[in-house]
TrEMBL record:
Protein name: Riboflavin synthase
Gene Ontology terms describing biological process: riboflavin biosynthetic process
Record keywords: Repeat, Riboflavin biosynthesis, Transferase
Enzymatic class: transferase
Metabolic or biological pathway: Cofactor biosynthesis; riboflavin biosynthesis; riboflavin from 2-hydroxy-3-oxobutyl phosphate and 5-amino-6-(D-ribitylamino)uracil: step 2/2
Amino acid sequence: MFTGIIQACGILKGRLQKSSGARLTIQCSSLFPSFGESVAVDGTCLTIAQLKNDCFEVDASEETLRRTTLGALSLGSSLNLERSLQLHDRLGGHLVLGHIDGTAPLVQRIPKGDSFQLGFSYPKEWNSMLAIKGCITINGVSLTLTNIELNRFEVVIIPTTCHLTNLHRLKIGQKVNIELDVMARYVARWLEHNTLLQSLSKTGYLNQKIRGTSLKTDPILTQEDE
């Protein structure tokens, strides 16, 4: 579990391809993780596999490389890093799992004084999990959605975030890792499931399936509309 407050930026120093994915070597002299510890690398939860001087190594599976930007990053790329939370830590951002939902390309970059407004395009499947003033994680950074339009959302990057993360390096067309708010994800899933149950109940399908058993459908789901 993380909170989306970046603690350091590292540099991708090596990549060793394996049959099951790749081992990444990351250099960072200001982060001091332990062997076996979880660390968010550009928002992706990975496990420390080895420590070497000012570098550490993590293993990324084929699924991780496919779903995130880690599979396409070139050596020398800057990476946002955050160690996993402890129970006594402050939640400076929001609850972040490190489980990436997908990537989104940067389509807009507008200076706002010493800040930046960034716009990203996203797939329609995310519509139900995005809300203005809601939370979103971009490359591991906890941010607030300031605007949502058709297949595009916007965030504002303040000077401190520019200084402490790699978001100020983004170029138009460059993809970032996106983790949707975990609470929005579960609410959307519940609503989808509940809608399906109501549809099945009204057609009598559920009643047929449970007939002869001790199970009963929820009266809220089976009552007829008045």
